Amino acid sequence: MIVCAAVIGQANNPLYLETFQPGSDDDALKFHYIVHCSLDAVDEKVAMPKKSPADTADPYLGMLYPTEDYKVYGYISNTKMKFILVLDEPVAREDDMRMIFKRFHTAYVDAVSNPFYTGNTPITSPSFDASVRAIVSTPV
Fold this sequence. Notes:
This protein is α+β, with helices and mostly antiparallel strands. The chain has three helices and five strands; from the N terminus they run E-E-H-E-E-E-H-H. The protein has one domain: Beta-Lactamase (2-Layer Sandwich), CATH 3.30.450.70.
């Protein structure tokens, strides 16, 4: 089950971070920390050299790192926007995670395509939040 979703900007600034686990404010702070720590793993995976020059970059980064209680997965767009999902258990199929990230990315594109959205600012769109909540409620 997805317990946290985040969109991180090009300058590693959080544009959207929402937790989906009932709890205290301490839990929200814990997920901020987990997402912030995952940015190092994203940078490492992006910096890895390609196996051959013909390889295309895969936006899905896979599992970034496991913690004691959570598994952190990542995705990076062509514009270097980072999408982070924190799950409380590992996924059975990587293809399922790829599809979830594609849906998450599509929801993001829809939100930032709004002419009233100012780029690289926190995403406060209720429709984006509803889309992310719908994605999160889908079983992995």
